[in-house]
Design brief:
alpha+beta; five-stranded antiparallel sheet
Amino acid sequence: MEFFLDPSTWIGLLTLITLEVVLGIDNLIFIAILTKKLPPSHRDKARTIGLSLALLMRLNLLLLISWIVTLTTPIIQNKYFVLSGRDLILLSGGLFLIFKATIELHERLENYPENNTNSKNYASLWAVVIQIIVLDAVFSLDAIITAVGIVNNLPIMMTAVIISMTIMSFASKFLTNYINNHQTVIVLCLSFLLMIGFNLVAGAFQVHIPKGYLYTTIGFSIMIELFNQISYNNFIKNQSRRSMRQRTAEAILRLMVKKNPEKKNEQQKKIDRNNSKPNFSHTYISETFKEEERYMMNGVLTLAMRSIKSMMTPRGEISWVNIENNIDVIRSQLLATPHSLFPICKGELDEIVGVVRAKELLFEIEKNVNLTEFSSKNPPIIIPDTLDPINLLKILRKSKGKLAVITNEFGVVQGLITPLDILEAIAGEFPDEDETPDIISENDSWLVKGGTDLHSLQQLLNTKTLIKKEENHASLAGLLISQKGQLPLPGEIIYIPPFYFHIVEATEYRINLVRIKKNITFKKNN
């Protein structure tokens, strides 16, 4: 009883427990790396068996402590160095650590793909267990020898070892799972093992590196990695607030970035020379997406994020037939306009009677039928301007080629949209015979119509600065008017980094033509 009432006994016990746990961290790090090579169902078993046998081994080492202390007798001696039995053990363990950590680092830095099939070659359970025992022997040797210097009492030392190994067994699963789920932590831990292995080798040759230096370096590295993990978790948290559609679209678009097939590194050239069969994992180097393919893929991925207003034919450009006009006027209008479908209205655009094909209407005119009754048999498809493009596709698919009329909340016609408009939103503009392209490229500038779709323009200019979430502009004119605060006058220049927008043609009511350049040098004859 007097033995347990001695305060020095408890102080020594707590000191040894703390020492064993702290010095056992490196052992747990290596256990995490070794057990990952086993099938998932065997990993817990390997940790339990390995640590249990390591405990028995440590207890046996304590029983043989008197012999271990005498291992300082020189075995190899010359004018350069002197190695005792203890030094040889430290040297062997250090070299093994350096070798094993280097192999593991090489596999991860080379980023070899893992085979996830059922035929994956896992390590043997007992091979991993033996490695755990051997590594624990190397790691525990210093701790046991140090324990003798602190408390030269066998029961206290054995009690400290049992308690510390119990703590390690409980912490091992959490630590190994955390390390295996964070690749940067694995690389950091392997770097620690390299450093510890180097320290063991240096100690074998009587070059003693203060433990404080080692622990300070490890502690500082852990603190930096902690900051890295906090930063990564915050990044994931912020990414989760964005829609899955947007994140997926951006990821695919990044994969389509054009690579230069001429810039092959030496390793790739060597692979190409040695391989007679095509290596599809490197196909991206020699085969890139065409400009049209990237444009269409971008259009598909961003379609759901666009508004109907950015794709429709605006109200001011709608060709419609007023049935109150003279028959000859209607016939002339139908023959002069290349469109195949026309909204038939009564007096004004907002009074749509129906939507009729031009050839059918011309045929009925020749028969002198009542155009109002004929047009009313084909009522228009009315959709709100707030409808999203994905649901719009379903409606247009059921419309069997007809156009849809876009109205606002007050029933005022905003524009028309057809399947061709959706195709143009994805693949680019298909101008009619009587139309000029919305965007004309001229050397180092672009001549753009004011009503040009802002999404298409932004994609063509390869920028993300034109469309902002807090603003709802469908056309270039809308953007420039918002930027200026009023309708700009001809000759004015508006700067939206990194582009300058020179107003070429404008009236009191609209912007007709704009020249876009990346610098402010404009010709006076624009």
